[in-house]
Specification:
The complex is a heterodimer of chains A (about 120) and B (about 110). Chain A is about 0% helix and about 50% strand. Chain A has no helices and eleven strands. In chain A, strands 2, 4, 5, 6, 9, 10 and 11 form a seven-stranded mixed β-sheet that branches. In chain A, strand 9 and strand 10 form a beta hairpin. Chain B is mainly beta. Chain B has no helices and eleven strands. In chain B, strand 9 and strand 10 form a beta hairpin. The termini of chain B are far apart. Classes of the chains: A mainly beta (about 120), B mainly beta (about 110). At the A-B interface, strand 5, strand 9 and strand 10 of A face strand 5 and strand 10 of B.
């Protein structure tokens, strides 16, 4: 059974960089059958796709966040990471990592439990 | 960008009811659509992909239909564990992925 687990600070100051890591177990980020995505959800609101990475390092980002987002992958640790720079209160959200199908999708078939990141001084 | 809308935004229903949720895309997306269920404090769960394919392990009371711009998610007989918020997601404009605003199904 594939499991994903987000980790990182729950509180980030305005203008700083949000950094999160997703650790994958029961599956490999090196699989060519999947992308690995980040998705966020502000409190009480809907879902926003942030971006994804392929095992090769190829990435795609939501244009609305592209200038501030970097997603990277560490195949040796079976992890992928998110960095979001110059954060503001609007970036306060639950951040999810998710496995994303390639052949039938892209659809998000396995999700982490999510981690709340609050942007506040 | 492809915009997704859902209707209704909320619906009150009873156990055993048939519930239908609609998702509309601002332009044609063929069958590149998924449906997710999200319960409070939990991650979304994939129910339907490719508009009508049931994800493994999802009860058969859930079904999806549609293509082009109009899609529906139907719960044939609502169960207590089905009270949740449901989101559609388009995958046609890949790599840009967008979600609908959600439909909350609550107890009547």
């Amino acid at each position: 059974q594939v499991q994903l687990q987000e980790s990182g600070p729950g509180l980030v100051k305005p203008s700083e960089t949000l950094s999160l890591t997703c650790t994958v177990s029961g599956g490999s980020v090196s699989s060519g059958s999947y992308y690995w995505s980040w998705i966020r959800q502000p409190p009480g609101k809907g879902l926003e796709w942030i971006g994804y990475i392929y095992y090769s390092g190829s990435t795609n980002y939501n244009p609305s966040l592209k200038s501030r987002v970097t997603i990277s992958v560490d195949t040796s640790k079976n992890q992928f990471s998110l960095k979001l720079s110059s954060v503001t209160a609007a970036d306060t959200a639950v951040y999810y990592c998710a496995r994303t199908t390639v052949t039938t999708g892209p659809y998000f078939d396995y999700w982490g439990q999510g981690t709340l990141v609050t942007v506040s001084s | 960008d492809i915009q997704m809308t859902q209707s209704p935004s909320s619906v009150s229903a009873s156990v055993g009811d048939r519930v239908t949720i609609t998702c509309r895309a601002s332009q044609g997306i063929s069958s590149w659509l998924a449906w997710y269920q999200q319960k409070p404090g939990k991650a979304p769960k994939l129910l339907i992909y490719a508009a009508s394919s049931l994800q493994s392990g999802v009860p058969s009371r859930f079904s999806g239909s549609g293509s082009g711009t109009d899609f529906t998610l139907t719960i044939s007989s609502l169960q207590p564990e089905d009270f949740a918020t449901y989101y559609c997601q388009q995958a046609n404009s890949f790599p840009l992925i967008t979600f609908g605003p959600g439909t909350k199904v609550d107890i009547k």
